[in-house]
Amino acid sequence: MAKKSKKQQPGGTPATVALTAAGVEYTVHSYEHDPSHPSYGEEAAEAMGVSPDRVFKTLVADVDGTLTVAIVPVAGQLDLKALAAAVGGKRAAMADPALAERSTGYVRGGISPLGQRKKLPTVLDASASSHKTVCVSAGRRGLEVELSPDDLAGLTRAVFAPIGRG
């Protein structure tokens, strides 16, 4: 079910290609996606047998006209005010899903913070630093990558900030 990877696998996603190119240690987790499941992130946590506080969802918000990536635990929600403050903005709202897909190159439910089409400002919830590894989408529904929070932050140029709640 899980596979360690240091070299590019056939059918890799831009996220796994970016991880391989960076020489970062990561583990790929693959599972059968159920389209009827109400939450992509909770489905991933259940399928992998991982605590939902270690599985992070990638959300795209509009902060004062700038698309911004927020990475928060699937067990909680994004605090839009905290996200705006983390990047020096005033107001944040969730981005239009079609715009998020066009900007990142990924589909909703499979948006990875890694290997995105455009480099967007990125904020990783501070709770990630309390874990040895975290899981994020590998760029497609049913595919996750597990890596250290520091590697995730380094590759996405993310800042750590308390942007999650609940």
What does this structure look like?
With 166 residues, this protein is an alpha+beta fold. It contains five helices and eleven strands, in the order βαβαβββαβαβββαββ. Helix content is 25%, strand content 31%. The longest helix has 9 residues, at 14-22. Mean pLDDT is 91; it is low at 1-10.
Structure characteristics:
166 residues, disordered N terminus, 4-stranded antiparallel β-sheet, 25% helix, alpha+beta, globular, 31% strand
Topology:
Layout: E1 2-5, H1 14-22, E2 26-30, H2 40-48, E3 56-63, E4 66-73, E5 77-78, H3 80-86, E6 92-94, H4 97-104, E7 122-125, E8 134-140, E9 143-147, H5 149-156, E10 159-161, E11 164-165
Parallel strand pairs: 4-7, 7-10
Antiparallel strand pairs: 1-2, 2-9, 3-4, 3-6, 5-11, 8-9
What is the gist of this entry?
This protein is an alpha+beta fold and 166 residues long. 25% of the residues lie in helices and 31% in strands.
